[in-house]
Amino acid sequence: MRQNSTAPRNNKLKPSSNLIMNGSVRVRVIRTLLAIQNGQSLASVLDPLLNSLHDGDKGFAHALLLTTLRQWYALERLLDSLADNPIDEKEVRTTIQVGLTQLLYLQVADHAAIHETVEAAKEIEFAHATGLINAILRKVAKNPSKFRKKCDKKHSLPNWLAYQLKQDWSEQYDDLMQGLRQPAPMFLRVNTAITSVEGYQQALVEFEVEVDLVELTSGFNLPNSSDAAASNSILTKGLRLHQSTAVNALPQFSEGAASVQDMHAQLAAPLIHNVLLNKLSVKKDDADDDTDTSNNEIRILDACAAPGGKLAHWLELISSNESSLFHVKQDSAETSPVISKVKITAIDNEAPRIERIHTNLQRLNLSQHDLQQAEKNIELNIVCADATTWQGAGKKKSKLVFDAILLDSPCTATGVIRRHPDISILRTEEDIEQTALLQADILHNLWPQLKVGGYLLYVTCSILKQENVEQMQDFMTYYNNVAAVEFSDDCNWGIEQAIGRQCLPIDSESGDGFYYALLYKTAE
Ligand SMILES: C[S@@+](CC[C@H](N)C(=O)[O-])C[C@H]1O[C@@H](n2cnc3c(N)ncnc32)[C@H](O)[C@@H]1O
């Protein structure tokens, strides 16, 4: 029996104090780390930190904060091994960890790292601990490579999470533990409604921004399709920057020519878009198919849409001339396009995050207003609603509303720890269970709203099986009208699972730890 779900515990944590942004750079970084340990997310404290600093200090503060977070648990273990007596005060531990990061990972000169860190302890009114801080940092400074080796040896995760990942990924475990401690590469998605990927790559060369073209192939076998359409292959192209760059240094960024989006996140929109294209192009002689395009409109849902990365991508594809749903022709003798209207609903239950959807779509000229002006016959509705209870049919009798659903589900975000290393501090073991329950509630509310013959793409940025393949296996036991679409061997991303595919953030050039499963609705 499913229980009532609640959001992950971290979402409920209240910040215990407002950040006081004064003092030296190190003091501000220490205060930021203390705020994160008190439950604030990195996303909420990073801008206040950086905005409080002179331009010349921002790079160092950013590196010090992010590196300390990435190495947090390894530094904690090292610290425990270095202290004669247990150190309990959070402020003292954090200060020493910030010192260790400078010595072991940032190659700051010994005397600056030690002196400035000791001074920081005085500034945060922990002068009583300066002797201890000084002694530990001096010991490490005498042989940094020995201590760096010690620190790098194991993982830098809380033990409960490392243990769970060992259970889930024993073969990939060592690489995964190292991969999760590294920074992630920056990827760009090119807005193909404006320019081609190759065209934008050329423009970047002129701006002296070095990138590599990344091509991901997604092969899958659609059930109940005609032979011609039975096997499909989609090519998703993105750009990987050699070095992370401020977006205002990118050509035509403010005009919407490109967006920052992880490479594996870029798989979502093409996948759901292409199965829909395929569905529309197949002659409707399938008894299992309830997709009614007789009124020339299709309805699609982005169920957890904020801040709108995948929604924007999908809208770019829909409004791009090459891949537009409006240009699909059925494989019958008829030649007229089958679709004259696409209705998209995007929901999310967090109002401030909905605001970010609007801002993002405006930059890309994809707001409701822009779409209306362009007379694209795309109707976009963005709604603040809870996906565990929301009903797209409103008062209509039939619940069957959507031809395709993208469910980019709330998750523990363990697959994006490289970008959000605060996750390893903020998450607790109990969050996995609670998050899995929330995901199940959303799935059970949305599935009855999908038309027979429609597709639901389930996505998470988690690397825990409970939220992914096990969630899908569990879900499928509830229904006799669900089939999992098989990805084929053509896929050059992720690891095949009993249902779906799992990407792991192992290698420093690849994308984040996303999971994808494509479900098809059959007749009961
Ligand atoms: C992984 S994020 C979505 C990212 C988004 N699809 C994108 O590509 O930019 C998950 C989203 O689910 C939303 N969410 C969490 N619980 C929800 C619920 N019960 N109903 C609707 N949205 C929910 C969160 O606010 C969050 O924005």
From TrEMBL:
<keyword id="KW-0489">Methyltransferase</keyword>
<keyword id="KW-0694">RNA-binding</keyword>
<dbReference type="InterPro" id="IPR023267">
    <property type="entry name" value="RCMT"/>
</dbReference>
<keyword id="KW-0808">Transferase</keyword>
<dbReference type="InterPro" id="IPR001678">
    <property type="entry name" value="MeTrfase_RsmB-F_NOP2_dom"/>
</dbReference>
<feature type="binding site">
    <location>
        <begin position="304"/>
        <end position="310"/>
    </location>
    <ligand>
        <name>S-adenosyl-L-methionine</name>
    </ligand>
</feature>
<dbReference type="InterPro" id="IPR054728">
    <property type="entry name" value="RsmB-like_ferredoxin"/>
</dbReference>
<feature type="active site" description="Nucleophile">
    <location>
        <position position="461"/>
    </location>
</feature>
<comment type="similarity">
    <text>Belongs to the class I-like SAM-binding methyltransferase superfamily. RsmB/NOP family.</text>
</comment>
<dbReference type="InterPro" id="IPR029063">
    <property type="entry name" value="SAM-dependent_MTases_sf"/>
</dbReference>
<feature type="binding site">
    <location>
        <position position="408"/>
    </location>
    <ligand>
        <name>S-adenosyl-L-methionine</name>
    </ligand>
</feature>
<protein>
    <submittedName>
        <fullName>16S rRNA (Cytosine967-C5)-methyltransferase</fullName>
        <ecNumber>2.1.1.176</ecNumber>
    </submittedName>
</protein>
<dbReference type="GO" id="GO:0001510">
    <property type="term" value="P:RNA methylation"/>
</dbReference>
<keyword id="KW-0949">S-adenosyl-L-methionine</keyword>
<feature type="domain" description="SAM-dependent MTase RsmB/NOP-type">
    <location>
        <begin position="176"/>
        <end position="522"/>
    </location>
</feature>
<dbReference type="Pfam" id="PF01189">
    <property type="entry name" value="Methyltr_RsmB-F"/>
</dbReference>
<dbReference type="GO" id="GO:0008173">
    <property type="term" value="F:RNA methyltransferase activity"/>
</dbReference>
<feature type="binding site">
    <location>
        <position position="348"/>
    </location>
    <ligand>
        <name>S-adenosyl-L-methionine</name>
    </ligand>
</feature>
<feature type="binding site">
    <location>
        <position position="386"/>
    </location>
    <ligand>
        <name>S-adenosyl-L-methionine</name>
    </ligand>
</feature>
<dbReference type="InterPro" id="IPR049560">
    <property type="entry name" value="MeTrfase_RsmB-F_NOP2_cat"/>
</dbReference>
<dbReference type="GO" id="GO:0003723">
    <property type="term" value="F:RNA binding"/>
</dbReference>
<dbReference type="Pfam" id="PF22458">
    <property type="entry name" value="RsmF-B_ferredox"/>
</dbReference>
<dbReference type="Pfam" id="PF01029">
    <property type="entry name" value="NusB"/>
</dbReference>
<dbReference type="InterPro" id="IPR035926">
    <property type="entry name" value="NusB-like_sf"/>
</dbReference>
<dbReference type="InterPro" id="IPR006027">
    <property type="entry name" value="NusB_RsmB_TIM44"/>
</dbReference>
<dbReference type="GO" id="GO:0006355">
    <property type="term" value="P:regulation of DNA-templated transcription"/>
</dbReference>
